[in-house]
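QUALITY CONTROL LOG
STEP: pairwise intake check
CHECKER ROLE: data steward
CRITERIA: each record must contain a sequence immediately followed by its structure tokens, with no blank fields

ENTRY 1 OF 2
RESULT FIELD BELOW
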Amino acid sequence: MKNNQNFVYLGLGSNLRLPSYRNAMKVIEALKKKIYKSGLRITKSSNYWLTYPIPFSNIPKFINCVVKCIIVSKKANNPVILLKYLKTLEIEIGRKKKNNNISRLIDIDILDFKGKIINEGLILPHPRMHCRKFVLNPMKKIAPSWKHPVYEKKIDFLITKIKSHQILIKKY
């Protein structure tokens, strides 16, 4: 049995900091309290990581974290329905839907859904998570033995293969 077969991992991020990064963390904390409505229960949460935006440098830095969840309701057992709910939750919290790669109050990504590989309508695991330190480093703190479902590589290996200078500035 795969070690991530029973868990859903979500990436949470914010880079609108009015007036401080602490407010971004407050937005994410508020989001965590609402995730249970999606049929998920958070079992672990990483620290917050202050990171530079990828691939842009002319927008504010991000606050990111990763949460590990278990499914507690049938409505969360379908990743497409879960994603629709999470995107509705982003709007409820105050996200304005514009360009995907600009500043945003909140961003929720399904990183891994029970170790499944899906390529229709929704791509899982998240198609770029294996090349993002701002996802892998926080995830390593809550799931050190996690293995990528497609590449079948452990998280430490994936982190060492990232060649870019994605700098994690600070951990909260």
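ENTRY 2 OF 2
RESULT FIELD BELOW
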Amino acid sequence: MTAQIKYADVEVGTELPAGSFPVTRATLVRYAGASGDFNPIHWNEKFAREVGLPDVIAHGMFTMAEAIRVVTDWVGDPGAVVEYGVRFTKPVVVPNDEAGALIEVTAKVAAKLDDNRVRVDLTAMSAGQKVLGMSRAVVTLA
């Protein structure tokens, strides 16, 4: 697959379509099984509170993966992402109810680079708090 977005058609400041990603306790259990990360802070409310967390929290790598979906959906090819990094600033707290939590992601083209690449800066929020800082991806466009 190749990126569907053309480098020549993108300007600095171009906003990508935003994404909202629900997270429930069941989502975290499935992610734990897929990732092998069974740390009890991601599924055991009592344990999470005992170690000072407000409740069960989403895995950091899960949060990162949900956020980059905004970029991969926009570009049309996950392989077009050549760099991606974040700083974890706040956890995504996932209450034990049907609604769970919501990760809301916005992104925009921050720079045009050489070789048909752009840098995309992402903002990921949950419960009104920024959960990822310095969230940036470099993407190769058509």
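INTAKE CHECK: passed for both entries
DESCRIPTIVE NOTE, ENTRY 2: The chain has a mean pLDDT of 97.
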